[in-house]
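HUMAN: Mind sharing a backbone?

ASSISTANT:
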Amino acid sequence: MRHHLKHYIRRHEPQGEFHHHLKSGIGAVTAMVAVGLLAVYTGLPLLIAPFGASAVLLFGQPKSPLSQPANVVGGYLLAALIGSLAAHFFPGLWLAGAIGVGLAIGLMLFLRITHPPAGAVPIVAVASHFDAPVLFEVVALGSALLVAIAVLHHLIPPRQQYPLRAD
């Protein structure tokens, strides 16, 4: 039993350096402050939980395929479409959120724009009762702002290549 347990508790991430971790945390704070300020300025409910999870990927794992701009923005827009349709056709039905999550994941994988935090958007759509235009504004503005800040952030030393370049 103990032999099998080690597979569950082993950490697979490399240790990394403290200054890289500090820079990642500062980048995430900066991005969330920017999203919050944009929310105050526009009156849109931009501070949705999935954006916090996106910050983990954008600032902590920028080389991941799941962190790339097409995945972030594309994943959010696709999930907003699916979430809006689920909320429209099955209003008030919690099962619509669950089905929306599954459909969003399947289509993100099929289209190769997988961004795990975007998988929560159908739940946001069903639970928040955002109408479709507001949901699209929220995910489009928020995800684009997060990506823009990540691009600038990764130009600051110690630099990380973001977005990844095709060779």
